[in-house]
Amino acid sequence: MVSRVVLLGVLFGVLIPVDMVPVKNSTDVHEGKLRLKRKYSGELFEEDELMDRDEMTAMDQILEVNSRLRAPRGLSFREGDIAYSYVRSAINCPGNACLWPKSIDGFVYVPYLLSPVYDDMDRITIETGMQEISSGTCIKFIPRTHEASFLDIQPRYGCWSFLGQTGGSQTLSLQTPGCMWSGIAAHEFMHALGFVHEQSRSDRDHYVTIVWKNILPEQIHNFRKQATNNLNSPYDYSSVMHYGRYAFSEDGGPTIIPKPDPYIPIGQRDGPSPLDLHKINVLYSCGVN
Fold this sequence. Notes:
Layout: H1 2-20, H2 58-66, E1 76-78, E2 82-84, E3 108-114, H3 120-134, E4 139-143, E5 150-154, E6 159-162, E7 169-174, H4 182-193, E8 208-210, E9 256-258, H5 274-283
Parallel strand pairs: 2-6, 3-4, 3-5, 5-7
Antiparallel strand pairs: 1-2, 6-7, 8-9
Helix pairs in contact: 3-4
């Protein structure tokens, strides 16, 4: 009898702490504990802890920097960091008009100018973002010499890019130090190659739930689906182009929940995922002259 009591006591002592451990990546608000709030209307703030920046996705950081951004005259922004002076569809460019041209040697050369304002570490960060794309695709970023169409990479206010090739000098803004993550650079380069954010895909409702009630009312337009060509590629929760779970949250609650597994991490900051590189290769027919 005594041994049974002891055994029950041990089991009780083990089970209670386990039951009290919060589930990692849980999308529920834990009652009785203040959570870190992520608001992108103005600035990030905390209630009882500092934000762990190692957990931020590239898009989290972009939205934090761009929350203080006033769009340059004549430009507007959608989805947080895509600049436009007129509306154009996402990956679906009419006749692939927004794609960078492919050379006869099978490579796609994207000329660029890098502002002299950047210091050596900035240049390394930006060029790392380029290399992360070039190493797995037929895209090659080359310093501009005489090319008419090129990326003009400048430390403007915020992190943003136009979508695809627009022709002529094309500004791509990477503010320093706020945008100086190689994953952010790769994110903006993918916009310049013609890609929108992953959760804007036309088929996204099969893979994520948008929690409309948690989105800042003035930011709801950033969650519209686009008429995208999804390139027969799987949905990629780990794409560097994916919004974070709390993007444009009004009160700290999640705005995007994966399904069927709500706990799967979404977005990241390390650079293009294998599927990101695959989609670039498909869009630009890499390996096919």
